[in-house]
Amino acid sequence: MTDNTPTVSGSEASEASRSALARFLDSDLLHSFLSSKVTVLAAITTLGLMLAALFAPIVAPFNPFDLAQISILDARIPPIGMEWSDPRYLLGTDDQGRDLLSGILYGMRISLAVGFLSVAFAAVLGISLGLISGYVGGRTDAIIMRIAEVQLTFPAILLALLIDGIANGIFGNIDRETWAIWILTFSIGLSFWVQYARTVRGSTLVEKNKEYVQAARVIGIPAWIIMIRHVLPNVLGPVLVIATINLALAIITEATLSFLGVGVPSTQPSLGTLIRIGNDFLFSGEWWIAIFPGLALAILVLAVNLLGDWLRDALNPKLR
Amino acid sequence: MFGFISRRIAMALVVMFVVALISFLLFRFVGDPVNQMVGIETTPEQREALRQSLGLNDPVLVQFFRYVMGAIQFDFGNSYQFKQPVADLIGRRLPATLELSFASAVFALALGIPMGVYTGLNRDSWLSKMFLSVSLVGISLPTFFIGILFIFLFSVTLQWLPSFGRGEVTQLGSFWDTGFLTISGIKAIILPAITLGLYQMTLIMRLIRAEMLEVLRTDHIKFARARGLPNRSVYYIHALKNTMVPVITITGLQLGSIIAFAIITETVFQWPGMGILFLQAVQNVDIPIMAAYLLLTAFIFVVINLIVDILYVVIDPRLRTERGRA
Fold it and tell me: Domain range holding B122?
């Protein structure tokens, strides 16, 4: 992530970056990535789904939020290949006549957005607290780690539910539609910070006693600059692995909360919301409304999980 | 060892105190209890009288003390939605959740252990590889979606098992109603229990597999083989026994998350347990129920953690001196 080479002039810098690219092309990481077919497939799937979600307004055949494009007469049309299907709707339509494929693409957008935002929030919070805990030590360290220990006793999903419930109790009067996603992101992020804090604290304890940190301290650099500029870049490796695995967990948590009806409002349906809506139609034979969004969710999470598994093994020098 | 245990108990008490404080602050300050109890036409004087009679004008510390004393005697106040004591509401639904958790833990252990031993012993057989890849898929599928798939397959398509409720329940004494004594009750618990236990099963399987691989390399296994003991007794007596310490820990800790994940399973299968009650409370901002649920689950988790910690020391003699000193 960083190289401790001294600053270089322009031409040398481009030389260094070229050799960095060459180094990457020749690295173990790339080699181990290409040699695992499952990982390459998972990476392609993840990238494809993310791009499809990002460009949903361009890729999707319909806009499920545009009332002019949906008609209740088209409700509950089965997917292609079944009787009564309509060639316009590849995966069929939901109870309000919205194209399911478009709904899934737009829904995945919200699921991914909440996933990324809450992982970023958890990572920033966890890394900062971990850095402070490890670098400052003493009573600060004891308090932060005690809180982490207590929080670790409870499963993340329960915490996220509780925080969401409390936040809605406190902010009961405000506009739920706009804030629900932020409250959700906040509750998921807050229930995942502990892992980052513990990992970063562990590596900080090791880095803190190395010579470069001592040198920085001796020449009088303030503690917070040492933490951010010198220690932080050297403890980020394991954080990347946790973040990847947490992304899958955060997406599942968001879907679960939305399925339970406490997540995103139904005007902005995520994958979990779509499954909840579809669940009501399972018994009347319209299985596709729940099953297709569920499969999309499962494929997304599986691909991210596989990437995370590979990254963990590839970055772990013990396994080489 | 005594020092270690008493330190753990002290820690558990601190955790419970903090949770009780949070739970009290919620109960007292999120939403106004008086507003929730009276109608619009109540006069300010009546409100003030109610406020006085509920003791809401007392110092906060006195109120906290009263809340904790009440909680110790299972008095958590009245639910805003149901206008009934929270303790009664929870008590009535506790048996359903506990039976579901118990059934799924039994399922997870009964399948997870043999599968783990098998995959540990036959690393390269196709069945092991299948178990492992299925378990990876199982971890990636959210619990609620597994439940939906089960309902779709076994209730809607094949119509073998019911998709909601507990079936017929039998009253045992005044506190407990069980679904284990009727056929419809047993049929009703199968799908929810498997849904809830699937994740734990894969976890136990992977854990036992990893432990088996490690234990089989140790000297005492080689020695047991050298003595000419039959494979079966080497594997199941000498090897499996040594994998049990982490399994007990993880299973114990997983009991807590079974209770948490029961919220999801209960929602999917309309299982009339505590989880649904809690979820309704979250949706309707019914603070007394949320506060009580928080306290109750915290208590269960803390007790489980304590037992696991103590068991750890009791089972593994190596930890006694090290941890005792630490």
Answer: 87-320
What residues does A93 pair with on adjacent strands? Answer: A99
Nearest CA in chain A to B265: A260
Verify whether the Cβ–Cβ distance B156 to A283 is below 8 Å.
Answer: yes
Higher pLDDT, A45 or B256: A45
pLDDT score of A118 more than 90: yes
Taken in order of first residue, the domains within chain A and their CATH numbers are: 35-55+88-315 (1.10.3720.10)
Read off the pLDDT of residues B239-252 as tens digits, 9 standing for 90 and up.
777 777 777 777 77
**Partner-chain contact B260 A164, CB within 8 Å:** no
pTM summary value: 0.81
Enter the ipTM: 0.77
Q: Are residues B313 and B299 both part of a single domain?
A: yes
Per-residue pLDDT tens, chain B, 326 aa: give them. 677 778 888 888 888 888 888 888 877 777 666 666 666 677 777 777 777 777 777 777 888 888 788 777 777 777 777 778 888 888 888 888 888 888 998 898 899 888 888 888 888 888 888 888 888 777 778 888 888 888 888 887 787 887 777 777 777 777 777 777 777 777 888 888 888 888 888 888 888 888 888 887 888 788 888 888 787 777 777 777 777 777 777 777 777 778 778 888 898 888 888 888 888 888 777 778 888 888 888 888 888 888 877 777 776 666 665 444 43
Domain presence at residue B51: yes
Assess whether B183 and B308 both reside in one domain: yes
Contact B140 A259 (CB under 8 A): no
| Residue that terminates a domain, selected from B60, B86, B112 | B86
Residue B196 maps to which CATH number? 1.10.3720.10
For chain B, strand residue ranges (E) read 170-172, 176-178
Q: Is B298 in contact with A154 (Cβ distance < 8 A)?
A: yes
CB contact, 8 Å: A172 with chain B? yes
Q: Give the residue from A162, A188, A273, A289 with the most B CB atoms within 10 Å of its CB, the best one to mutate.
A: A162
A34-40, long-range: CB within 8 Å, 24+ apart, which pairs? A36/A310, A38/A306, A38/A310, A39/A306, A39/A307, A39/A310
d(CA A208, CA A214): 8
B313 & B184 share domain: yes
Distance from CA of B116 to the nearest CA of A (A): 20
With residues binned 3-state (H G I as helix, E B as strand, rest as coil), the percentages for chain B, rounded to 5, are 75, 0, 20
Taking an 8 Å cut-off on Cβ atoms, the answer to whether A262 and B283 are in contact is: yes
pLDDT above 90 for A126: yes
| CB-based contact A157 B261, cutoff 8 Å | yes
Contact A256 B142 (CB under 8 A): yes
Check CB contact of A87 with chain B, cutoff 8 Å.
Answer: no
Is residue B6 within 8 Å of B262, Cβ to Cβ? no
Let me know whether B44 and B191 are in one domain: no
What is the Cα–Cα distance from B313 to B310, expressed in whole angstroms? Answer: 5
Nearest CA in chain A to B149: A291
Which of B145, B270, B280 best probes binding to A when mutated, by most A CB atoms within 10 angstroms? B145
> Tokens in use for A308?
């995370």
Interchain CB contact of B137 with A (< 8 Å) = yes
Determine whether the interchain pair B30/A166 forms a contact, defined as Cβ–Cβ distance below 8 Å. Answer: yes
Report how far apart, in Å, the C-alpha atoms of A160 and of each of A36, A255, B101, B114 are: 35, 12, 21, 34
Task: Looking at the structure, tell me whether residues B245 and B117 fall in a common domain.
Answer: yes
Q: Could you give the number of structural domains in chain B?
A: 2
Q: What integer pLDDT is reported at residue B77 of this predicted model?
A: 77
Cβ burial, residue B227 (10 Å; 0-12/13-18/19+): exposed
Q: Report the alpha-carbon distance of residue A269 to residue A94 in Å, rounded.
A: 12
Q: Give me the residue from A158, A166, A168 closest to B260, CB to CB.
A: A158
- How far apart are the CA of B96 and the nearest CA of chain A, in angstroms? 19
